[in-house]
Design a protein that fits this description.
alpha/beta; 4-stranded mixed beta sheet; globular; 17 strands; 7-stranded mixed beta sheet; Aspartate Aminotransferase, domain 1
């Protein structure tokens, strides 16, 4: 069957998120049949370098033999068993392995299936933490401009809109909002709100170092660390959303490591299973977890059916081993430096480029659509896909986020393709 045949079947029964289905097929979506290494292969045999890591989740590439084997071994034992009141040995092993590396003191892990759920859990935990301690006045949250924390109602509330989500404003709860990382005074303004409203805040919620969905807005690590320490001094919990930045994207295992940040609650997702299975976790520091111990009213009445899925846990455990033992972070450093040089030489000077922002292998190339029509980002990415490199825009920001194991030749191909796409569309 051709791609057109599959797309006709797709349109008949599938609803794609963040996609206007009336115009879905006009943008030539690829129909994936299988994958090999860092490439996706469509139903007609065309290959595409996955330069967005399948929406930022794939870390080591596709069909990694060790991860395939871990999945098969666990499938031979049990695919899933409930974590509500029971446990599973592989989930315990994963939690132990993560506890050794997360930047959280005395960590305990509440597993879920996606990043938005991890944030939602963190918001509920932060609120109930204060209630359990007898403080019923801490019901507010401090969040940053440009923030994106997911699409559940709570995560939308601490997020700063965008992507059409203003439609849901009547459902969102109000928060104290200070500017994001694109404001040079973002830290001072956040500190001022902490000082003025600290006693009424349950938590401050932010993405350490990089605001990904905002177009890869980057902060100084020292500034992020200052915010974390100021929140602690004010007695406000810190919720670090590392769904996008975690598991090596910035060049260290967690972005918080760059910042000297020890959050009270850490949200993990996306790369936790290397892109194999949906899994996330909310990591609570020991003092937060202990506030829920005692009689039943203190318990956290929250949990998901597939939280702590055994298949996901087995793959996540093996993935963590591969990241540690395979020199993956060293490769991130080398390829990030190479990418920075190529972007500075070939992309930043382009007349259609407004700015290039990078931290590790997280890159946003902001375009200047002036005089070039609308949806420039989408048109540039479409031109790249036609050349065999899969990219996806955030408005007029083209995101580059290759796998952590990307090779030098692939980095050159990505930049060459982006340059050609810019020349085609914007000159």
């Amino acid at each position: 069957m051709s791609s057109e045949d599959w797309l006709r079947r797709d349109r008949a029964v599938v609803w794609h998120g963040f996609t206007q289905m009336a115009h879905y097929d006009e943008h030539a979506p690829i129909v994936v049949d299988h994958a090999e290494g860092h490439e996706l292969v469509d139903v007609e045999g065309r290959r595409y370098l996955d330069a967005i890591s399948s929406l930022w989740v794939t870390t080591l590439g596709h069909r990694v033999p060790e991860l395939d084997a871990a999945l098969a071994r666990q499938a031979g034992k049990v695919a899933h068993s409930t974590m509500l009141g029971n446990t599973n040995r592989v989930v315990v092993e994963l939690a132990e392995a993560l506890a050794a590396v997360v930047p959280v003191d005395g960590p305990h892990f509440l597993f879920a299936s996606d990043g938005a759920s991890a944030v939602e859990q963190a918001l509920k935990i932060a609120f109930q933490y204060w209630v359990n301690r007898g403080d019923h006045g801490r019901v507010g949250y401090l969040a940053l401009g440009n923030a994106y924390h997911g699409d559940t109602v709570g995560s939308l509330s601490v997020g700063d809109g965008g992507f059409g989500t203003s439609l849901y404003d009547p459902l969102r709860f109000p928060v104290h909002r200070t500017p994001g990382y694109d404001d040079p005074a973002w830290l001072d303004k956040a500190l001022a709100v902490l000082e003025a409203h600290g006693p009424e805040l349950a938590a401050v919620v932010f993405e350490p170092l990089v605001q990904g969905a905002a177009g890869m807005l980057v902060a100084e690590p020292t500034d992020v660390g200052v915010l974390g320490r100021a929140a602690a001094d004010a007695g406000v919990l810190v919720v670090a959303d590392e769904v996008a930045t975690g598991f090596g994207r910035t060049g260290r295992l967690f972005a918080s490591d760059w910042c000297g940040l020890r959050p009270d609650l850490l949200c993990l997702g996306k790369g936790i299973t290397g892109g194999y299975l949906p899994m996330s976790a909310t990591v609570a520091a020991g003092h937060v977890y202990e506030a829920f111990l005692g009689e039943e009213p203190l318990a956290l009445f929250h949990g998901h059916s597939y939280g702590g899925n055994a298949l996901g846990a087995a793959v996540a455990l093996e993935h963590l081993r591969l990241v540690h033992e395979g020199g993956v972070l060293d490769n991130v450093g080398a390829r990030a430096a190479q990418l920075a040089r190529l972007l500075a030489g070939r992309i930043a000077p382009h007349g259609a480029v407004k700015a290039v922002r990078q931290r590790g292998l997280m890159v946003g190339v902001e375009l200047d659509p002036t005089g070039r029509g609308v949806r420039l980002g989408r048109r540039v990415c479409a031109a790249a896909v036609r050349r065999g490199v899969l990219l996806r825009p955030l408005g007029d920001v083209v995101v580059l986020m290759p796998p952590l194991t990307v090779e030098a030749g692939e980095v050159e191909l990505i930049v060459d393709t982006l340059a050609a796409a810019l020349d085609e569309v914007a000159t």
